[in-house]
Amino acid sequence: MSYSHLTTFERGRLEALQKLGWSTRQMEKQLNRHHSTIARELKRNSIKKYASEVA
């Protein structure tokens, strides 16, 4: 099974969408990624809020 990492652009979009208050499911559709990928990324690279620079 193959996978690909989120790109820097996708991480930036993820940060922007989260700041706009989008849900994980809404972000999933926008980025064409599985919702669990989005949730893991937010959890893994968050201190109090997601920052794409940290990722």
Low-confidence stretches: none
Mean pLDDT: 87
Helix content: 40-55%
Strand proportion = under 5%
Pfam family, one: HTH_38
Domain Transposase IS30-like HTH: 2-45
Organism: Halalkalibacter hemicellulosilyticusJCM 9152
Protein name: Mobile element protein
Structural account:
It contains three helices and no strands. It has a domain at 21-55. The chain is an all-alpha fold. Helix content is 55%, strand content 0%. The mean pLDDT is 87.
Quick synopsis:
This protein has 3 helices and no strands.
Characteristics:
mainly alpha, 55 residues
Map the helices and strands:
Layout lengths: L7 H12 L4 H8 L3 H10 L11
Protein name: Mobile element protein
Pfam families: HTH_38
